[in-house]
Structure formats: structure tokens, C-alpha cells
Amino acid sequence: MRAVTVVTATLPTKRISAHPDARKVDVDAVKALANSIAEIGFINPLRVRQLGDAWQVIAGGHRLAAARMLGFETVPCLVVDDDDLHAELAMIDENLCPNDLSPSERAEATARRKAIYVALHPKTKRGAALKRGDQFPSRQVGETGPERFTAATAKATNLSERVIQRDVERGEKIAPDVLAKIAGTHLNTSVYLDRMKATPPEQQRARVLEDLSAPKAPVPQRRLAGEAQYERLVRAWGKASVGVKQRFLLSHIRRDGTPS
Questions:
Q1: pLDDT tens digits for 187-226?
Q2: pLDDT, tens digit (0-9, with 9 covering 90-100), for 53-72
Q3: Which is nearest to 211 in space by CA: 227, 224, 192, 226?
Q4: Measuring CA to CA, which residue among 77, 73, 65, 72 is closest to residue 31?
Q5: Strands, E assignment, the chain
Q6: Which distant-in-sequence residues (6+ apart) come within 8 Å of 253 by Cβ?
Q7: What is the DSSP letter of 216?
Q8: What angle do CA 183, 110, 47 make, to 5 degrees?
């Protein structure tokens, strides 16, 4: 595991910039944060890295915006020695943890996280172990090494491995420009992304353009309510602690694997 150097510091807001790939700031979220910070102060410092004589936000872009809204000249920070890939990884994890991204945003972020993770830990790439003839990712007792992507991401984001695998498949199987066209539209749903990932890559662009231009068919309220409930359930599960998840599974799943 990489050793990270962390230094606590109070830094000037005017010399801290956002990461170029940072998620767009939500004005309403910034206002809510500003109200909280004004009342009780900072609960969590910003995570930044130094670039020359300035600093770049890795985690805490909304907190920085809130501090500026309040007129703060300085903010509490954790200064880390992250390189480009580790900085982007930490930024993605902060976005995934609240689990409030849209389906297309989650797919894109999770697929990018996997690409970074494999670049940092090549042994975790599917098929790499078989080519070498070893047993990774299965390990002997006492053996150390990087975890498989879904397990490591589950720990970092508090999401289930099943949710992570679902999102990464969407992000990998749907072309990036197609995901971009879906974002912010009525097509940005889990159901539509699953249909699109099953569509051959060479047909995805034509299909999304056709679907966007087609008149919107009325969607049954029952179906809309079901999808909304599903998304809320996924968010709630992602925020639950490991102990709560285990308690739920033990009380609702029979020994044969069927729901109780």
C-alpha cells in the first residue's frame, strides 16, 4: 500500500484552484454548506496537493466554494503528495461516496476509476494472472497484494460490489460520447443505460439520437415510482454501515439464499 504524506495547514483561498476534471459545483449545495460552516465551522478540511506556489483541490470543491461565498480568506486543509492518478482517484471517490450522481455520471466515474486502478495495479487486470500462471486474485493465507477492483472500490465508497460492477459495465460498454448525449436528458435512467450497454457499439450513436428525437411517450406512473424507489434504495444501501448491511442480510435472507 502506498504511504501518503499528509500535512495539516491553513491555506489562502485565493491560491487554491479546482481540479480541471472536478464535478460541476452545485450552487444549492454550496449555499447549504455555507450555512452549515457559518454556524458550526469546518467539520472536514479540504484535501489538496501543492502545485508550484499554489494548491489544487482533490476533495472539497464545494467546501472551498462555500468558504469563498462566506468571504473566508483561509481554509483548513490536508496537504497530500498525490500524483495525477492518485489525485483523480481520490476525487472520484469523493463524488461516488454520497451516491447522489445520476446513472450516467456514476457509470462514467466508476469506469474511469477502474481504468486508474488498473493502471496503478496492473496485476488486478482480468486475465493478467492467468498469463503469468499464478493464482491472483485468489491468495494464500498471509499473502499480500492489491485487492480486486470491486472490493477496493467498495471499501473506498461504501457501495456494494454488485452496484460497482453494474456501473462499471455501463461505463465500459457505452461509448463516452453516447454517455455525454444521455446526460441531462430524460434517457438518463438505469433502465435505459442497461438497454444501451446491450446495444452493439456501432449502433449506439444512431440509437441515442433516434431516441432523443422521438416524441416522449407517456411513462406509466407506476414505472416511474418503481425506478425512483430503486434509486433511493441504492443510495440508502450505499450509505449504510457494514454492520447494518450484515444485520439486514441475516434477518431477510434465508440460508438457501432466497428472501425471507
A1: 999 999 999 999 999 999 999 999 999 887 555 566 556 6
A2: 999 999 899 999 999 999 99
A3: 192
A4: 65
A5: 6-12, 16-17, 46-51, 54-59, 74-80
A6: 259, 260
A7: P
A8: 100
